[in-house]
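Before a colleague's protein record goes any further, I have to sign it off. I want your independent view on whether this chain really folds as the tokens say. The record follows directly below this note.
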Amino acid sequence: MTTFERIKKTAKERGLTLNQLNEKAKLKNNIIYSWKTKTPSVENIKKVAGVLGVSVDYLLGNTDEMHANKKSDKVINLDEALSEKGVVMKFQGKELSDKAKRGILEILDLIDGDEE
């Protein structure tokens, strides 16, 4: 599977079109489509991996583990997971970034673990 095919497959699993992924990663218009025939820059792959919540190694095909350097391989929908915990998805009228959502979810998981 090529890097482009992995990105496309993973984006679909996350409910994103390649255009949406392109926008969330703040890349030039349609640049991901150009990766069918061109090699993406390391910086762009990092941006896409960050949005998709996977490792760069996974996108490059170096591993089949999405989170090779993480403790957990589970894939979650951040919006669903946070809304189930009653967390508001906006701050000062702006949508929270995926990074902020992951951080909030990690904190909530730590708090839930402390209840024992």
Remarks:
- Confidence is low (pLDDT under 50) at residues 69-73.
- The first strand starts at residue 90 and ends at 91.
